[in-house]
Amino acid sequence: MSKSKSSQSSSVTNTNINNVLDGGAIKESFDFASGIADEAFDSVNNAIGSMESVTSNALSSNENVIEEAFDVVDGVTSEAFKANSTITNSALDKLAEQNSKSMDALAGLQGEQSANNFKLLEGIQKTIRNDNSGGATEVLENQKYLFAAGAFVVAVLLFFAFRGGN
User: Fold this and answer.
1) Are 128 and 164 in the same domain?
2) pTM for this predicted structure
3) 9-19: b or e for each residue (b if 16 or more CB lie within 10 Å)?
4) How many angstroms separate the CA atoms of 6 and 16, rounded?
5) How far from the centroid of its chain's Cα atoms is residue 90's Cα?
6) Same domain for 98 and 144?
7) What is the per-residue pLDDT for 129?
8) Which residues cross the membrane (predicted)?
9) 129 and 145: one domain?
10) Is residue 151 part of a domain?
C-alpha cells in the first residue's frame, strides 16, 4: 500500500514535530511550567505569610492603641468627675453659707417685726383704754408722772432746806 503525497507530507510534519518535542523538550517544558507554578505558589504563600504577619502586627498595634485610648479616656473622665465634684461641692457650700445668712437675716427681721408689733399693740391698747375711759386714763397717767415729779422737787427742796440750816 502506498501512501498519497499529502499523507506522506503530513506524516513527515508530525514526525518532525514529534522528533523535536520528543527529545525531552516536552518533559523539560512540563518541568519548567511546574517550577514556575511552584515558584508562584511559594510567592503566594510568602505573600500570605507576610500579610498574616502584617495583619497580626496591625491588630496588636490596634489593640495597644485602643487600650491606651481607654486609659486616657479613663484618666480624663476621672479628672472630669473630680473637677465636677469639686465645683458642685463648692457651689453647695456657698449655697449653704448664703442660705445660713438669709436665715439669720430673716430671723433678725422677724425679731424686729415682733418688737414693732408689740409696740403697735401696746399703742392700740392705750388708745382703746382712752376711748373706753373717755380720756381719763391718759389724764390719770399724766397726773401720776406729774405728782411723782412734784414729790421729787419737794424732796429736793426739803433736803436743801434742812441741810442749809445745820
Assistant:
1) no
2) 0.38
3) eeeeeeeeeee
4) 15
5) 15
6) no
7) 80
8) 145-162
9) no
10) yes
pLDDT tens readout for residues 139-162: 888 888 899 999 999 999 998 888
Same domain, 90 and 153: no
**Domain extent for 165:** 135-166
> Do residues 33 and 98 share a domain?
yes
CA–CA distance, 58 with 31 (Å, rounded to integer): 39
129 contact partners, CB below 8 Å, separation of at least 6: 137
For 73, other C-beta atoms within 10 Å of its C-beta total 10
Looking at the fold, whether 126 and 143 belong to one and the same domain comes out as no
Q: Are residues 77 and 106 in the same domain?
A: yes
Half-sphere exposure of 93 (CA within 13 A, CB side): 6
Q: What is the DSSP string of 67-123?
A: HHHHHHHHHHHHHHHHHHHHHHHHHHHHHHHHHHHHHHHHHHHHHHHHHHHHHHHHH
Do 129 and 137 meet the contact criterion of CB atoms below 8 Å apart?
A: yes
